Structure formats: structure tokens, C-alpha cells
Amino acid sequence: MGILTVATANTAQSAGLDVGADLIAIQQLAAVAHQIRQITCDVKAQVLGREMAVLGKRLEPGSWSVTECLDHLTQTTRSFLPEISLAISEARKLTKNRRLRTGLVPSLLIRSLNPPYRIRFKVLPQITPRNLDSQTAWINFVNSQSQLLEVLSSAAGLAIDEVRIKSPVYARISYNIFGAFRMLVAHQSRHIWQIEQILKILDSRAVPGVA
Q1: pLDDT per residue over 22-48, tens digit each?
Q2: Rounded CA gap, 76 and 69, in Å?
Q3: Domain residue limits at 132
Q4: How far is the CA of 146 from the CAs of 13, 73, 149, in angstroms?
Q5: How many domains does the chain have?
Q6: 211 belongs to a structural domain
Q7: What is the CATH number of the domain that holds 131?
Q8: Which positions ≥6 away from 33 have C-beta within 8 Å?
């Protein structure tokens, strides 16, 4: 077994993925898993030790607080997971060593979601932030990240780019499952960047003499 194969297997194992699955696809899924874990760590570094009042504070009327961003991410992930899980259960096994395809629609959406972003999207009622306290929002977010990783691991060795779901938030759009995973990561990155910007501004306002 070569160095690349060993490294890939170790990465897959650390991500909770089946090392017996297709090698290239395993690399792709392991990369997505790493991004999800890194996002959780980044949020933890941002919010841990912060006062609940700060995390629940809006910069201006109509904007979102850090707590609301976290709840929005949780609700978005949970809205996708049932459809993704069902589609994965119907996916066939990969029969050759190949890359998983993202698809055109997810690729376009990922490009517009990745920070720093210029395009804003209308948020539908089912994923609009609720009035939660910061601790509950954080716990729910961490749990939803664990659920996302668990569902991702169940896709190892499967042709998840050959099964599609209708978007649970925009019913007119459909995309393959690998594209959906990548799109969820891009969506999370978008709002983690937003959280960073919120906290930077709040921190600057807390310094005397800084507007």
C-alpha cells in the first residue's frame, strides 16, 4: 500500500468513513467531513466564553444576531437531512474509481454562497431563526453538525452523485446528494463569516472611543 493510499485511509478513518469504499470518492467525502468539523471548531472558538447578551445582540433592527445565525444553520441542516438520508439509501455502489460530481446547480449556488458574499437570499419561514437563548442555539448547532457527519459517513462507497433530491427550501430546484453536501458546507461558511463580522463590530463598539 502506497503512502497516498495510507494517508487517504487514515483521513477517511478519522472522518468516520468506510475505508473500503472507492478511493477517490473517499478523499472527497473526507474533505467535506473535515470542512464540517473545522466549521464547528471555528464557531466554538468564536462563541465560547462570550456573554449570552452579546451573542443575542443584533447590530441593527432586522439584522441577525450570532444566536440567530446558529439557529438558522441548525434548521437548514435538519431540513435537508431526511431527504438526503432517503436518497442515500437508494444509491447504488460505486463500480469504478472515479470522482463524485457536484453538478451545475450546486456549483453555481456554492459560488454565490461562499464568503465574502454579495448576493443575499430570501430566507423562507421554515428556516427563519427562532427566539432561542444562546446556549440552546449552540447545543442544537453542535448536535446538527454531528448528525450531518453521521449521514455523510453513510454515503461512503455509494454513487451519491447519481441520486437527486428536491430542495427542501426551494422546491423548484433539485440536485444530487454530493452537491447538496458541498452546498451545505458553503452555506455554513457563509454564516460563519457573518458571525465573525458581527463579533468584530460588537468588539469594536465595546472599546472606548471606537464607533
Answers
A1: 589 999 999 999 999 999 999 999 998
A2: 11
A3: 3-206
A4: 16, 13, 5
A5: 1
A6: no
A7: 1.20.120.450
A8: 15, 16, 17, 149, 152, 153
Beta bridge partners of 174: 166
Residue with cell 458541498: 182
Nearest to 79 by CA among 127, 34, 32, 31: 127
3 CB-near residues (< 8 Å, 6+ apart): none
What angle do helix axes 66-89 and 177-206 make, rounded to 10 degrees?
170
Residue 132's alpha-carbon distances to 68, 123, 139, 174, in angstroms, are 8, 18, 11, 31
The three cell numbers of residue 108 are 453555481
Q: Is residue 180 part of a domain?
A: yes
Q: Which of 23, 79, 19, 50 is nearest to 200 (CA)?
A: 50
Full-prediction pTM beyond 0.90? no
- Report DSSP letters for 92-157, one per residue: PBP-SS-PPP--HHHHHHHHHHSSS-----PPPGGGSPP---HHHHHHHHHHHHHHHHHHHHTTTT
In a domain, 33, yes or no: yes
The per-residue pLDDT for range 73-120, each reduced to its tens digit, is: 999 999 999 999 999 999 999 988 999 999 998 898 888 777 765 556
Half-sphere exposure (Cβ direction) of 45: Cα atoms closer than 13 Å: 9
Closest by Cα among 180, 187, 191, 203 to 70: 191
Report yes or no: 94 and 18 within 8 Å, Cβ to Cβ: no
User: Has residue 149 been placed in a domain?
Assistant: yes
Three-class secondary structure of residue 175 per DSSP: strand
